[in-house]
């Protein structure tokens, strides 16, 4: 499916302070439902440049739809999110990201307030309303890596339930009884958890049970399970916003990393380092002592049963998110936050099978800003630099995508890997999902130049054509892994689940996910790979020498055979005719050469005669003078 990137514009209403400033309020004019016009105010750089003949003072921009200052949250959701949520429920991954200057209303559009919900909680409500009566309440199927599913054992399910309870208990609205229940619950299963943490290895995939990715009958009854994650990119580091941190003293947050699966799809996982004990201070002393690596280290996916639980997790993540006060915004986002919702579709059976996985991500980008207007310094200045740099790289990627759509131009490099943000966005711009951009602007004249830059960027983004691939085209098929993180069976698209229900064979040739190995294992693996590469090079050189020798011998034999064949072939009449013709041509050329030779001879004789005559003329004496001279001599 080919369709342009949908770009929606939302204009923020004036604040009370902006209205009291009595500044010009006519720089943004909405022409119709798709067009907006920007008029440069006198004090803006755009107006000064236009007076010098550089650029224009009036600009017109077109969007998929323009929402004015009077637009409510409900109206904006209805006008912008229907298509992408419908595609998400049908199995297509979706990305919604906001873009604009600081204090333009991006976070309000995404999250809203407790009384006026944004598009994220409204989307959750639509999803839960859609799966009402078909909600799979168990936690034994959990998202894994980028597009896979992990089947959890009973002990792991209990651990997931306890972890969820502990995270929700970090909110003050949750009663102390729930927290006490979580602590007692974990203590009662402490021996199982100890065995799990010390003996279970979250390693690479080797044998996978396939997901049933065939199209299901619309009349077939299915179930759905909803999982949520919440992370942020702060100063080009990825952090889990659902981590349990100590409130009594500051704790160092764990840095996560971005990895790739076999299909090149990115996912977020943790580093294999020891957890900080303070992160688990509210759960259990037993867990604090035994939890050295593992489940709590990676990006957390939490199962949610309702919109209310999703909103609680959103609130918990916001408590851990990086905010700061600047001159232009009292609650300025200093990081890019990504709230992801994964929908697992299951068969409605006694032992459910996973039919597919789809993911909907809401990215609240930090606003671009000019430091001379926000008056930031120190850490705030460093944050602003990283924010502007990541947004600049996003702009470069959009520009490169637009250029590569022109067949007459040479394809350019798309710098997805130059930023954590664009690396996570890459699959959505490469056909493995559907993206949607929301542009937020304010009408204040002091930010007109920044707003104009945002509008120009959005105009470029709207020209990008998305190529949305079918779910089974361009993807590595989804896979199901066991509770220990190891694959249960290799996937074959032509094999049904019933064909290998009793199979226990493993394949030694499966590729290992090296991102899960420790530092020592990585070094050892690197040395082994070096030896294999050297041996492979030696074998390839020997093979090349052998092939060259065989080719030379074969060519030499072919030349000898060709020469011998020409010698043995009798002259055909045509060859005789060609021979006679050559003889005639030879005689003709000889005659022409002889005639030219005679011409040269005559020319040389004439030249010699002329030279002799010139010499005679030089020494010629008239007869009278000769006789007179002779008489004198006598």
Give a brief outline of the structure.
This protein has 634 residues and is α+β, with helices and mostly antiparallel strands.
Report on this model:
Belongs to the TRAFAC class myosin-kinesin ATPase superfamily. Kinesin family. Keywords: ATP-binding, Coiled coil, Cytoplasm, Cytoskeleton, Microtubule, Motor protein, Nucleotide-binding, Phosphoprotein. It comes from Calcarius ornatus. InterPro entries: KIF11-like, Kinesin_motor_CS, Kinesin_motor_dom, Kinesin_motor_dom_sf, P-loop_NTPase. With 634 residues, this protein is of the alpha+beta class. 42% of the residues lie in helices and 18% in strands. The protein is built from 18 helices and 22 strands. The protein has helices at 16-20, 45-51, 73-80, 82-89, 106-110, 119-130, 154-168, 176-188, 190-199, 285-290, 307-320, 371-374, 379-404, 420-429, 448-461, 519-568, 573-618, 623-633; strands spanning 2-4, 6-11, 28-30, 35-39, 58-62, 65-67, 94-100, 141-144, 148-151, 209-210, 222-234, 237-240, 255-260, 266-270, 302-304, 323-324, 332-333, 336-347, 354-364, 434-441, 465-467, 479-481. The strands form five sheets. Strands 2, 6, 7, 11, 12, 13, 14, 15, 18, 19 and 20 form an eleven-stranded mixed β-sheet that branches. A four-stranded mixed β-sheet has the order 8-9-22-10, with no helix packed on it. It has a three-stranded antiparallel β-sheet with strand order 3-4-5, with helices on one face. A hairpin with a 5-residue loop joins strand 13 (255-260) and strand 14. The longest helix is centred in the C-terminal third of the chain and has 50 residues, at 519-568. The radius of gyration is 40 Å and the shape is elongated.
């Amino acid at each position: 499916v080919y369709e342009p990137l949908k770009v929606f514009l939302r204009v923020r209403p004036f604040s009370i302070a902006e209205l009291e400033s009595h500044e010009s309020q006519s720089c943004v004019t909405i022409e119709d439902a798709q067009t907006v016009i920007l008029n440069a105010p006198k004090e803006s750089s755009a107006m000064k440049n236009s007076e010098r003949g550089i650029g224009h003072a009036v600009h017109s921009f077109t969007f998929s739809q323009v929402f004015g200052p009077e637009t409510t949250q409900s109206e904006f959701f209805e006008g912008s999110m229907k298509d992408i949520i419908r595609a998400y429920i049908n199995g297509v991954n979706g990305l919604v990201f906001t873009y604009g200057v600081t204090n333009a209303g991006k976070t309000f559009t995404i999250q809203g307030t407790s009384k006026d919900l944004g598009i994220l909680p409204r989307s959750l409500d639509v999803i839960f309303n859609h799966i009402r009566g078909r909600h799979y309440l168990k936690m034994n199927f959990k998202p894994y890596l980028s597009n896979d599913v992990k089947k959890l054992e009973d002990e792991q399910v209990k651990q997931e339930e306890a972890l969820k309870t502990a995270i929700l208990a970090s909110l003050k609205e949750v009663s102390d009884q729930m927290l006490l229940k979580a602590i007692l619950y974990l203590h009662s299963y402490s021996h199982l958890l100890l065995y799990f943490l010390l003996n279970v290895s979250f390693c690479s995939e080797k044998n996978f049970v396939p997901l049933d990715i065939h199209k299901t009958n619309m009349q077939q009854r299915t179930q759905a399970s909803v999982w949520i994650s919440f992370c942020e990119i702060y100063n080009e580091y990825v952090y889990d916003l659902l981590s349990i941190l100590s409130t009594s003293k500051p704790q160092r947050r764990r840095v996560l990393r971005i990895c790739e699966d076999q299909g090149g799809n990115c996912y977020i996982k943790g580093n294999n380092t020891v957890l900080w004990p303070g992160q688990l201070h509210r759960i259990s002393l037993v867990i604090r002592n035994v939890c050295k690596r593992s489940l709590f280290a990676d990006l957390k996916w939490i199962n949610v049963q309702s919109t209310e639980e999703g909103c609680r997790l959103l609130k918990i993540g916001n408590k851990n998110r990086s905010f700061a006060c600047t001159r232009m915004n009292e609650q300025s986002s200093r990081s890019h936050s990504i709230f992801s919702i994964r929908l697992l579709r299951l068969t409605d059976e006694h032992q459910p099978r996973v039919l597919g996985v789809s993911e909907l991500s809401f990215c609240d980008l930090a606003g671009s800003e000019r430091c001379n207007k926000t008056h930031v310094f120190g850490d705030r200045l460093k944050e602003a630099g990283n924010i502007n740099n990541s947004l600049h790289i996003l702009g470069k990627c959009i520009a490169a995508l637009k250029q590569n759509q022109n067949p007459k131009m040479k394809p350019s490099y798309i710098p997805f890997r130059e930023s954590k943000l664009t690396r996570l966005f890459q699959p959505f711009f490469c056909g493995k999902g559907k993206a949607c951009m929301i542009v937020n602007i304010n009408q204040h004249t002091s930010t007109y130049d920044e707003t104009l830059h945002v509008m120009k960027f959005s105009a470029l983004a709207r020209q990008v054509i998305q190529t949305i691939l079918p779910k089974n085209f361009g993807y590595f098929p989804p896979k199901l892994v066991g509770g220990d993180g190891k694959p249960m069976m290799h996937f074959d698209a032509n094999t049904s689940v019933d064909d290998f229900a009793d199979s226990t064979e493993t394949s030694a040739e499966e590729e290992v996910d090296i991102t899960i190995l420790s530092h020592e294992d990585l070094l050892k693996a690197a040395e082994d790979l070096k030896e294999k590469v050297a041996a492979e090079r030696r074998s390839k050189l020997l093979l090349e020498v052998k092939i060259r020798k065989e080719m030379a011998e074969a060519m030499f034999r072919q030349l000898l055979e060709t020469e011998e064949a020409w010698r043995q072939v009798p002259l055909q009449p045509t060859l005789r005719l060609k021979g006679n013709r050559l003889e005639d041509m030879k005689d003709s050329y000889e005659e022409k050469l002889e005639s030219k030779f005679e011409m040269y001879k005559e020319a040389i004789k004439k030249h010699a005669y002329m030279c002799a005559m010139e010499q005679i003329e030089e020494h010629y004496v008239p007869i009278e003078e000769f006789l007179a001279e002779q008489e004198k001599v006598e």
